[in-house]
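Lecture 7 notes: from sequence to structure.
We start with the chain below.
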Amino acid sequence: MVTTLRVVAAAAGVHPSTASRALNEKTRHLVNDAVAARVIAAAARLGYRPDQAAAALRSGRSRLVGALVPGIANPVFAPILSGAAAALSKAGLGLLVADTGHDADRAHHIVQELAARRVDGLLIATAIRQPDPATELARARGIPFVMILRAAPGDAAVMADNTQSMELALAHLLALGHRRIGYLGGGVADTRSDRGACFVQVLVAHGLPAEHVEMTQGFDRAAGQRGAMAMLEHASGLTAVVCGNDLIALGCYDAARTLGLRLPEQLSIIGHNDLPHMDLVEPPLTTLRLDYKTMGERAASALLGLLADGSPAQQFMTWELVVRGSTAPPGGWAALGHANAAMPRIG
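Predicted structure tokens for the same chain:
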């Protein structure tokens, strides 16, 4: 049986309106201290919990935030959601998570559903090209939102510094002696496309050709294998590949082995994200690491700022290069001392 405010008021011997004021920290000063203490004790004894739906109708705020991600099973998004949930919880808000896949219509529908539930704001990490109907609907409904990993101009967002990640990756490969380097990334999401553009920008700035860019139609291992097969079969003399994420990099491993290439002697590979167990594959994957839990915390904090009438702002998070066994000097020779040499800044 649900304990209502009327039951608490009856147990404390007061009117329901008095019980309501006593249980609200903002109005408790309007009630006699002894009466307030009696109401609070009765509520605790009876296990009373406020009706959040009724509170939302009265205040116009649900104390809930919606989060849209393109894949709950994707290990990138678990720490993002964990960080966001923790930061929102400290502010007394809950998090509703929805998996949109890469379906723009589904994302639009989910925003409609969340708007009907009067969410206070949205965290949007979907991988959908602009114009994005979900964000357009959020703007039309006046729902504050923060983008994660991508953004259109003017959006509040927390993103990865993809230029910096490419500087780290290419500096490492160039220090090893590579000059024929390709990029393999997903072609669906803006952020990965931007990552590819950053690869071209940094490589060209160093005076090297950037003709070997292959964009897959997905971000998983199978898509990586298909894209790598196409790239490696047509790119003459390619000695290294930078991949848009670790799963694509594993697909590149598969393609290289299918073509009879030894890793890293004949092909060096770098990933992005440092997913769990990338140190256990053979060879262990050299990759770029981002603190995704902190990214979720920052996105939630940015949304809380918007809810407090803050201005939209875009934050960029930096990467850390994790050097493992999938990169070595080209030509079949490897020297640990050379691989760990100081990495020059490019650009």
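Points to note: The first strand starts at residue 64 and ends at 69. Residues 333-347 have pLDDT under 50 and may be disordered.
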